[in-house]
C-alpha cells in the first residue's frame, strides 16, 4: 500500500455554525512528510485531531493504510500523536516515559530495553534515561515525546505544533532531528505549524490552509514559485510579496506593457513580485534593465535583515515595496535606487477570487 494516509472530503462544523474544516482531501504516500500550515483558526489542528480520532468528522472518510478508521477509537488507530506540550509523566524517568511507546507490544525485557536505548541514542538522550522528566529542559522533554511517538512504530506520525514553545535555536535543532529520524525510519508524518519557515524546511508536501479549506497542496518549491492563490503567495515566502492592482488596458507607469503577456480576458489584475526578484541598482549605475517588465525609482525608507541578506523598503507605483539589496552596496536611508524585474518574476491574480491567472511554467525540481 503506497498511500499511508488518505483524507476524502472531510468536514467539521462546531456549534454556532463555525465551519472549522470544509471538504479537505489529502493523500500522503509511505515515508512522506506532509506539513499543514496556515494562520490560527484555519482548521489545521482540527484536521489532525480528526485523523487521530480525537474529533469526529461530520462527513468524509479517513483511511490509514487503506483502511477506513472513522469509527475506530484513537488507541485503535495505526497513528501516533505528538502534541505541542510534551505530555510526559513528570514523576517518571525518561526510560519509563519512552516505554509508553512500547506499551502495546509483547516484547521480552531485553528487547524492550534495547529498543528504548536505541531511540535514546538517536535522540541524544542516552545519558538521561534515569532522570525524572520534571528535571529536563524544554528541548529534552520534546525529544522524549518524539522518541515515545516513534517507538509506537505507527503507520502515521501526527505532530501538532511540536516546536512552537521552544526558542529559535532549539527549534532549528529539533527540526533537523525530526527530518533525520523520519527519513531514517521511512516514517509517514503529518505535522501542523503556523510557522511558514518551519513548514518550508520540513515538508515534502506542503498544504496551505485558510478558513478551513486547502489553498494549495504541492511541493514547497512550486508553492513559492507558482502560488495558486493570492493567499498562498502572501502567506508563504521569506519576506512579504509586493502587490499592485493594475488595469491591463492602462497599466501603471512602472510596468512595461511591451514586456508583459497579460492574462486573457482580465481587465484588472493583482500583480505580485517577491522582494528577492526585484533588482536594485544605483541611479548612476549601468542600466542593463531595458528588457525589464517592471522598472521604477524608489527612495529607501527602511532596512530589514533576514539572516545575512538585507532588504530595503519604500514606495513604488503608489504601493509599499520591499526589495533585496546587493551585497557590498553601502546604501543609506534616503538613497534613490532603480528597481527592475523580469516578466518571469511577475505573478498574476484575479482580484475577486484570488486565484492565479497566469501559470507560466517555471522549472521546479521535484
UniProtKB/TrEMBL annotation:
<dbReference type="InterPro" id="IPR008995">
    <property type="entry name" value="Mo/tungstate-bd_C_term_dom"/>
</dbReference>
<keyword id="KW-1003">Cell membrane</keyword>
<keyword id="KW-0067">ATP-binding</keyword>
<dbReference type="InterPro" id="IPR047641">
    <property type="entry name" value="ABC_transpr_MalK/UgpC-like"/>
</dbReference>
<dbReference type="GO" id="GO:0015408">
    <property type="term" value="F:ABC-type ferric iron transporter activity"/>
</dbReference>
<dbReference type="GO" id="GO:0005524">
    <property type="term" value="F:ATP binding"/>
</dbReference>
<dbReference type="InterPro" id="IPR017871">
    <property type="entry name" value="ABC_transporter-like_CS"/>
</dbReference>
<dbReference type="Pfam" id="PF00005">
    <property type="entry name" value="ABC_tran"/>
</dbReference>
<dbReference type="InterPro" id="IPR003593">
    <property type="entry name" value="AAA+_ATPase"/>
</dbReference>
<dbReference type="InterPro" id="IPR003439">
    <property type="entry name" value="ABC_transporter-like_ATP-bd"/>
</dbReference>
<dbReference type="InterPro" id="IPR027417">
    <property type="entry name" value="P-loop_NTPase"/>
</dbReference>
<protein>
    <submittedName>
        <fullName>ATP-binding cassette domain-containing protein</fullName>
    </submittedName>
</protein>
<dbReference type="GO" id="GO:0055052">
    <property type="term" value="C:ATP-binding cassette (ABC) transporter complex, substrate-binding subunit-containing"/>
</dbReference>
<dbReference type="InterPro" id="IPR015853">
    <property type="entry name" value="ABC_transpr_FbpC"/>
</dbReference>
<keyword id="KW-0813">Transport</keyword>
<keyword id="KW-0472">Membrane</keyword>
<dbReference type="GO" id="GO:0016887">
    <property type="term" value="F:ATP hydrolysis activity"/>
</dbReference>
<keyword id="KW-0547">Nucleotide-binding</keyword>
<feature type="domain" description="ABC transporter">
    <location>
        <begin position="5"/>
        <end position="236"/>
    </location>
</feature>
Amino acid at each position: 500500500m503506497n498511500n499511508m494516509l488518505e483524507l476524502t472530503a472531510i468536514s467539521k462544523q462546531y456549534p454556532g455554525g463555525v465551519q472549522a474544516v470544509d471538504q479537505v482531501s489529502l493523500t500522503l504516500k509511505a515515508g512522506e512528510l506532509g506539513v499543514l500550515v496556515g494562520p490560527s483558526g484555519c482548521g489545521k489542528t482540527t484536521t489532525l485531531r480528526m485523523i487521530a480520532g480525537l474529533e469526529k468528522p461530520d462527513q468524509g472518510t479517513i483511511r490509514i493504510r487503506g483502511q477506513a478508521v472513522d469509527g475506530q477509537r484513537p488507541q485503535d488507530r495505526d497513528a501516533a500523536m505528538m502534541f505541542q506540550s510534551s505530555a510526559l509523566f513528570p514523576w517518571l524517568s525518561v526510560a519509563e516515559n519512552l516505554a509508553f511507546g512500547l506499551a502495546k507490544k509483547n516484547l521480552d525485557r531485553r528487547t524492550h530495553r534495547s529498543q528504548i536505548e536505541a531511540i535514546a541514542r538517536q535522540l541524544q538522550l542516552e545519558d538521561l534515561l534515569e532522570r525524572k522528566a520534571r528535571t529536563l529542559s524544554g528541548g529534552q522533554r520534546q525529544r522524549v515525546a518524539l522518541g515515545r511517538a516513534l517507538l509506537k512504530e505507527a503507520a502515521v506520525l501526527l505532530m501538532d505544533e511540536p516546536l512552537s514553545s521552544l526558542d529559535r535555536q532549539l527549534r532549528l535543532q529539533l527540526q533537523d532531528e525530526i527530518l533525520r529520524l523520519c527519513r531514517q525510519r521511512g516514517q509517514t508524518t503529518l505535522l501542523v505549524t503556523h510557522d511558514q519557515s518551519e513548514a518550508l524546511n520540513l515538508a515534502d508536501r506542503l498544504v496551505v490552509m485558510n478558513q478551513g479549506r486547502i489553498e494549495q497542496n504541492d511541493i514547497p518549491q512550486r508553492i513559492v514559485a507558482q502560488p495558486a492563490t493570492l493567499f498562498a503567495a502572501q502567506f508563504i515566502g521569506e519576506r512579504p510579496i509586493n502587490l499592485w492592482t493594475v488595469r491591463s488596458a492602462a497599466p501603471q507607469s512602472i510596468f512595461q506593457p511591451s514586456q508583459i503577456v497579460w492574462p486573457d480576458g482580465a481587465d484588472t489584475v493583482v500583480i505580485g513580485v517577491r522582494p528577492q526578484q526585484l533588482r536594485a541598482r544605483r541611479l548612476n549605475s549601468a542600466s542593463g534593465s531595458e528588457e525589464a517588465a517592471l522598472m521604477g525609482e524608489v527612495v529607501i525608507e527602511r532596512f530589514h535583515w533576514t539572516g545575512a541578506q538585507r532588504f530595503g523598503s519604500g514606495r513604488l507605483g503608489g504601493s509599499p515595496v520591499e526589495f533585496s539589496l546587493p551585497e557590498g552596496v553601502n546604501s543609506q536611508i534616503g538613497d534613490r535606487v532603480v528597481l527592475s524585474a523580469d516578466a518571469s518574476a511577475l505573478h498574476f491574480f484575479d482580484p475577486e477570487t484570488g486565484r492565479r491567472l497566469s501559470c507560466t511554467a517555471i522549472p521546479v525540481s521535484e
